Amino acid sequence: MKIRTAEIGDLPALTVLWEEFMDFHADLDPSHMRSEGAADRWVAYVAGILGDTSHRVLVAQEGTELSGYTVALIREYPPIFEFGTFGFIQEIAVAAHRRRRGVARALLDAVEAWLRESGVPNAQVRVDVGNEASRSLFRGAGFEPFVETLIKAY
């Protein structure tokens, strides 16, 4: 397996992975249902951040197949805090038939290396409380609870 920076030509395969990722999360919580045209907007977003030095899109490639990807970015804290920036792992997605084979961990290790090289003091991620595999991945990599997000539906 090779971890590399995503390229514009990867977008069709990445979109398939993203749709699977979104459907998985929609099964956990209906609030994650994709809106009409969401895939096109996601492609435009990713195309716009490729090459942006504050963002990183990495892919896991096995042979000619992309088995997973991650999107991460460097964000700024409000100027009232000592640390100026932090890493934010927006998503890690792995093809269903490639899960539990170390793909997510390899992507996480690679994106953390980029964040450390970028000088950020920490990395943050939001994990759906019902996604035990993801929670296990991040906790196993040393991530700890930080902020609890509560939601109230109307």
How is the secondary structure organized here?
Blueprint: E1 2-5, H1 11-28, H2 38-49, E2 55-62, E3 65-76, E4 85-94, H3 103-117, E5 123-125, H4 132-140
Parallel strand pairs: 4-5
Antiparallel strand pairs: 1-2, 2-3, 3-4
How would you concisely characterize the structure shown here?
This protein is of the alpha+beta class and 154 residues long. It has helices at 11-28, 38-49, 103-117, 132-140, and strands spanning 2-5, 55-62, 65-76, 85-94, 123-125.
Protein described:
- The protein has 154 residues and is α+β, with helices and mostly antiparallel strands.
- The chain has a single domain (2-140), classed as Gcn5-related N-acetyltransferase (GNAT) (Aminopeptidase, 3-Layer(aba) Sandwich).
- It contains 4 helices and 5 strands, in the order E-H-H-E-E-E-H-E-H.
- Helix 1 crosses helix 2.
- The protein is globular.
- The protein starts with a strand and ends in a 14-residue tail after the last helix.
- The mean pLDDT is 93.
CATH secondary-structure class: Alpha Beta
Fourth-tier CATH superfamily name: Gcn5-related N-acetyltransferase (GNAT)
Q: Would you list the SSEs in sequence order as H and E?
A: EHHEEEHEH
Give the C-alpha Rg: 16 Å
The main sheet comes to: 5 strands, mixed
Strand order of the largest sheet: 1-2-3-4-5
Distance, first to last CA: 45 Å
Helix content: 25-40%
Question: What is the β-strand count?
Answer: 5
Provide the number of structural domains.
Answer: 1
* Alpha-beta classification: alpha+beta
Q: How large a portion of the residues is in β-strands, by DSSP E?
A: 15-25%
- DSSP helix count? 4
**Which overall shape is indicated by the principal axes computed on the Cα atoms?**
globular
Poorly predicted regions are: none
Mean pLDDT: 93
The CATH topology is what?
Answer: Aminopeptidase
CATH level-two architecture: 3-Layer(aba) Sandwich
